[in-house]
Amino acid sequence: MDVPQLLAGFGDWAFDRHANVLSWYVRPLFLIPLAWSAHRRSGWGIAGTLVALATSVFWFPAPARPDPQVLEFLDFEREWLTGPWDLPKVASSLLAPLALGAYCLAFWRRSVVWGLVLLDLMAGGKLLWGVVVGNGTGWAMTAPALVGLLVCNAAVLWGVRRLRSRRVHPAAEPPAPLVGSSGPSGPAGTTSWPR
Q1: Is the pTM of this model over 0.85?
Q2: DSSP string of 126-169, one letter each residue
């Protein structure tokens, strides 16, 4: 078995499927459960969401007739990933995992403002990278990036509003036991008073 050839075959298969624009619309949406998992301080939720985010590039079938702009951007992205790696390229490639880590940390610490700032910077940064470094090929991802950005911002703001409304209007307290009933308050006919 030739491992490099196997990896190249997997890369071809994954990039062919990533040409399906549905994966471009779905991927940003994983930032919603990522924020929720970080807010709930669930390491498993964060890990599961990151695995889903990484594998979602090949969830959808390869399109029968891919968009030429999408193919042009994917060709650029593939050349960038498989080309020579120097220090500036390594440094710039570390921005994505660092930004995702900072995003998780912001929601872990319940800082919604910083979480939204990072969300917007990540979306804008990816688009800017594709346009500038990709010599304009990144314009192909404008619609999916902006739709994902709007949906993610709206979902986070909705979640914050919902959490705040729960704090203002907590669930009703359980009814007090009837006097003369048996149960945790004491035997029948007695009342347990707070001390």
Answers
A1: no
A2: HHHHHHHTTTTGGGGGHHHHHHHHHHHHHHHHHHHHHHHHHHHS
